[in-house]
Amino acid sequence: MKTISIRRPDDWHLHLRDGAVLEGVIGDTSRYFARAIIMPNLVPPVVTTNDAKAYRQRILAALPKGDRFEPLMTLYLTEHTDADDVEEGKASGLISAVKLYPAGATTNSHGGVRDLNKVMPVLERMAKIGLPLCVHGEVTTPEVDIFDREAVFIETVLDPLRLRLPELKVTMEHVTTSEGIDYIKSADANIAGTITTHHLIINRNAILVGGIRPHYYCLPVAKRESHRLALRAAATSGDPRFFLGTDSAPHVDPLKECSCGCAGVYTSLNTMSCLAHVFEQDDALDKLEAFVSLNGPAWYGLSPNEERITLARQEEPVQFPAKRQTGAGDITVFDPMFPLHWQVAGD
Ligand SMILES: NC(=O)N[C@@H](CC(=O)O)C(=O)O
Ligand SMILES: [Zn+2]
Ligand SMILES: [Zn+2]
């Protein structure tokens, strides 16, 4: 049987939500991942270091017994964020990054940033203390086509910001375009990109061909095939600037299967199996560890995990549950539309 052993992976972009959803989904992450960057777009958002401290406690309290998992907390940047609070959060070891949501760009982003000028003092402080800014990189301008919003963001927001503040470390989250990949590759320093599991597997046809399939809808929305191939090439290249951020984003089914469905794909449960499949297909299994276990910690200034996991390729397809049941309702699990053969030892 074909097997590979890698250091235990981390997830550098994860939504855990709160309450019954948090309790229902946390085990799907803590089973495979040692650490994760936790997104702060709760309702209300995680804005202050105190909010993050309390949310971290709720995450730890929801962990299945015996699981060891380190939530790496982030703050939701607003036009009222206090630079001193951010600095204290970093100094205390609690805060790993600050998240920029352009107001209106995605789920629970209405409290995000409208005018970057208003947050420059906070960004300047972050540059000074070496705290990364995680970015949802899409413009919200109504005239800009939704498939172009990432590329336009890079040109009109991200690049000007980085010219203004070159010392700021920026994580471009969930890169979905070849423009995003090229932009990161062309930079000298201080930029990296997370790539999701699902954007390595689906293109926009998955959402639209044969009927509207809401469980493949997320933001940034999946693009055409040429972009997916650019993401695959970057992820499987071993380039230290690219690493896994699943962006696993649970929404209970009634909120996705309706006339105005939420954006988000739930992938925590079968991500490692999907990724092993992708890397094997691209003859790059030897690069999987860099993507899921090495490049992320290096970017965030952390050591890679000492513990290891083994993945084994089974003859027969491995079955995963189609839905994760939670106290708030069922959440549909990402269906990669091909049989999965790779299994994490112990599953
Ligand atoms: N990715 C998504 O489609 N949704 C995320 C928000 C985000 O990461 O943009 C969510 O919170 O549901
Ligand atoms: Zn986002
Ligand atoms: Zn996200």
Keywords:
347 residues, alpha/beta, TIM Barrel, 8-stranded parallel sheet, 3-stranded antiparallel sheet, 11 helices, 13 strands, 33% helix, globular, binds N-carbamoyl-L-aspartate, binds zinc ion, EC 3.5.2.3, metal-binding, DHOdimr, hydrolase
Descriptive overview:
- This protein is α/β, with parallel strands linked by helices.
- The protein has a single domain, classed as Metal-dependent hydrolases (TIM Barrel), CATH 3.20.20.
- The protein is built from 11 helices and 13 strands.
- Strands 2-3-4-5-6-7-8-9 form an 8-stranded parallel β-sheet. It has a 3-stranded antiparallel β-sheet with strand order 1-10-13, covered by helices on one side. It has a two-stranded antiparallel ribbon with strand order 11-12.
- Helix 3 packs parallel to helix 4.
- It is globular.
- It starts with a strand and ends with a strand.
- N-carbamoyl-L-aspartate binds at residues 15, 41, 106-107, 136, 218-219, 247, 249, 263-264.
- One zinc ion is lined by residues 13, 15, 39, 247, 249.
- This is Dihydroorotase.
- GO terms for molecular function: dihydroorotase activity; zinc ion binding.
- The active site is at 247.
- It is an enzyme of class 3 (hydrolase).
- One of its GO terms (cellular component) is cytosol.
H/E series: EEHEHEHEHEHEHEHHEHHHEEEE
The unique ligands bound to this protein are: N-carbamoyl-L-aspartate, zinc ion
Please outline the major beta sheet. 8 strands, parallel
Shape: globular
Q: Would you identify the regions where 5 or more consecutive residues have pLDDT less than 50? A: none
Number of strands: 13
Overall pLDDT level: 98
| Number of distinct helices | 11
Q: Can you give the helix content as a percent range?
A: 25-40%
Give the second-level CATH assignment, the architecture. Answer: Alpha-Beta Barrel
- Give the strand line-up of the largest sheet: 2-3-4-5-6-7-8-9
User: What structural class do the secondary elements suggest?
Assistant: alpha/beta
- Classified in CATH, the superfamily is Metal-dependent hydrolases
User: CATH class, please?
Assistant: Alpha Beta
User: What share of the residues does DSSP label as strand, in percent?
Assistant: 15-25%
How many distinct folded domains? 1
EC number: 3.5.2.3
GO molecular function: dihydroorotase activity; zinc ion binding
Catalytic activity: (S)-dihydroorotate + H2O = N-carbamoyl-L-aspartate + H(+)
Protein name: Dihydroorotase
